[in-house]
Write a structure and sequence with these properties.
This protein is of the alpha/beta class. The chain is built from ten helices and five strands, in the order αβαβαβααβααααβα. The relative contact order is 0.15.
């Protein structure tokens, strides 16, 4: 191909890109481009519960950190950590996952201490599902207590790593699980082993009490998310909330694992990574 043709093609490509940007259809994604060099993280730490450990995303019901949406280093999930590596953000291969299956907001301070000891520059937080997933609605963590515990954990990070960036992620819409699975016999059978009973007990029941219980559960998740947003605002400019992006995800059956029909599959973890990454770039 002649140099004249190459030049023409390059010009045409540039014109198409400009037109797309002006039309608002296909301009650069908010996630494109590295953060300012002087503010690039050299290490990342994840705080949270079983969702962040990649629980159930491999072939058994156990943590599978290589598939974590936050710090995963496997091939099936393009995690936040790997996206930082790909954009040459300055991160030097240090990733630590301090999340723990079953953890509630009360565990956040201890996890934050581990992140501080590891000198994390970027900290992700996804917590709250287990505060709601109790045996009964009455046993769910009170909203005020949840906020106090989140504040305590964030305070540990702020005092120990004042220059670190923090990304607080909204709790997924767990009621969506019931919505997409309550008519599937496999999901119902799995949930009857005692998974998140405050929401998923008697999943096929249409009794008024059960309908009301699920609605109350959903409202508690909404209240927790409001407090996560408020806690991040109180933290200051180094904290970013995802704006409810994860909670708004209308995940599909394929994005839930086939073992407990509760935790994200590898595809679900990848979706979480994509959504949180885009939200974090929009907020930068």
């Amino acid at each position: 191909m002649s140099r004249r043709w190459i030049t023409a093609l390059l010009c045409l490509s540039a014109l198409v890109a400009i037109a797309c940007e002006e039309g608002g259809e296909a301009g650069p994604r908010p996630s494109d481009g590295p953060p300012p060099r002087g503010d690039s993280p050299s290490s990342i730490a994840a705080l949270g519960d079983s969702i962040t450990t990649g629980f159930g995303s491999c072939v058994v019901l156990t943590s599978c950190e290589r598939n974590s949406w936050s710090t995963g280093d496997g091939l099936r999930v393009d995690s936040v950590y790997q996206r930082l590596l790909d954009q040459d953000s300055g991160i030097r291969g240090r990733a630590a996952n301090h999340a723990d299956p079953g953890a509630r907001a009360s565990a956040l301070a201890g996890q934050a201490q581990a992140a501080v000891r590891g000198k994390a520059d970027y900290v992700t937080v996804l917590i709250g599902a287990n505060d709601a997933c109790r045996r009964t609605v009455d046993e769910m963590t009170p909203v005020s207590t949840f906020r106090e515990q989140v504040d305590r954990g964030l305070r540990v990070v702020k005092e120990g790593r004042p220059k670190a960036r923090v990304l607080v992620v909204s709790i997924p819409d767990l009621n969506r699980l019931w919505e997409i699975g309550h008519e599937d016999s496999r999901a119902v059978r799995a949930w009857r082993t005692g998974i998140c009973p405050a929401l998923l007990a008697a999943p096929t029941s249409t009794a008024e009490a059960d309908v009301a219980r699920r609605a109350t559960f959903g409202k508690r998740i909404d209240a927790y998310n409001s407090q996560l947003a408020a806690a991040c605002r109180a933290y200051g400019s180094r904290c970013r909330y995802d704006g409810g992006a994860v909670h708004r995800v209308r995940f599909t059956v394929d994005e839930v694992n086939r073992l407990d029909w509760f935790h994200p599959s590898a595809a679900g973890q990848d979706r979480l990574a994509e959504v949180t990454w885009r939200a974090s770039r929009l907020a930068t």
